Amino acid sequence: MRGQFTGWPEQAMDVLWQLQGEPTHATRERYRADRERLVRQPMIALLNEVADTDPRYEDFSVWHYRTDSWWWQHQGAVIRLGRKIEIGLRFALDGLRIQGAWWYPDPGQVDMFRKAVASEGSGRELSAIVKDVRKKGYDISGDVMKRPPRGYPTDHSRANLLRHRSLIAARPLGCEEWLHTPEAVDRVLSAAADLDALLMWLVRHVKRTA
Questions:
Q1: pLDDT of 24-48, one tens digit each?
Q2: Which of 39, 30, 32, 44 is nearest to 9 (CA)?
Q3: How many other C-beta atoms can be found within 10 angstroms of the C-beta atom of residue 16?
Q4: Neighbour-count burial of 20, counting CB atoms closer than 10 A to its CB (0-12 exposed, 13-18 middle, 19+ buried)
Q5: Which of 23, 22, 17 has the alpha carbon at shortest distance from 39?
């Protein structure tokens, strides 16, 4: 049901501003309650609404602050779609960022990925998906080898994809007025739709290993 997320309050940016640099323990404690209320809780509300819209997005986590200053300055969250396959969100002073990622793979997953990339049908499909995602403004990255792995020709038509040991598509969504309104839910759902073909390809072909 829509209505629980109303946007990040303007004061959320003020709190993150106070936590820049290397804030002292005393500074962190001074802003802990405000950060929880104004920064972290809106992320939880946003992801609840995203999950209400599409049940595939129900398995999510919204991170706490940990000890590193970076985690106090960046509110992270993930939506899990498969083993090591997820949508990541990050809210900070520069706005909201989204990524679709298959990373930190289990043993055997990289081999599955390579076989699917090398196969004509699934490999051509992924190549077209990555091209489309890139056209939509996403940066494609990951853990990439300097050359194709052993057992695959160096002149393979999808050599660039074969070099990947993880695959990430990411882009900033911006820091405009919509962040402080319910429109942020639709922005996230639209970006998730951009990433859907890529992430579902990964769910199909990079299965959980025993």
A1: 999 999 999 999 999 999 999 999 9
A2: 39
A3: 22
A4: exposed
A5: 17
